[in-house]
Design a protein that fits this description.
The protein has about 80 residues and is mainly α. About 55% of the residues lie in helices and about 0% in strands. The chain is built from four helices and no strands.
């Protein structure tokens, strides 16, 4: 995991972080990680699996129709890519 050092934080911000962490029952480091993750995570991001599941629901396939996909799917294990 990467590390990050933040310098020159004002005493007021440091104190506020300490209080906020204590209110949430965690360390300052954990609190800062949580704050950073919540700020930089894209809002409304749709993950591929969710998108594909939604497409499947909209298609309203029956179990028999879905089973047809499984029959024709290539089940050969993928080979590692060679860059040589």
């Amino acid at each position: 995991m990467a590390m990050l050092t933040v310098r020159n934080i004002s005493d007021e911000v440091h104190r506020a972080l300490r209080v906020r962490a204590a209110r949430h029952g965690q360390s300052m480091e954990a609190e800062v990680r949580e704050i950073l993750e919540s700020v930089v995570s894209p809002e409304g991001r749709v993950k591929l699996g969710s998108l594909l599941a939604d497409i499947g629901r909209k298609a309203k396939l029956t179990d028999e129709e879905f089973a047809g996909f499984e029959q024709v799917r290539d089940k050969t294990p993928a080979r590692p890519v060679s860059f040589e």
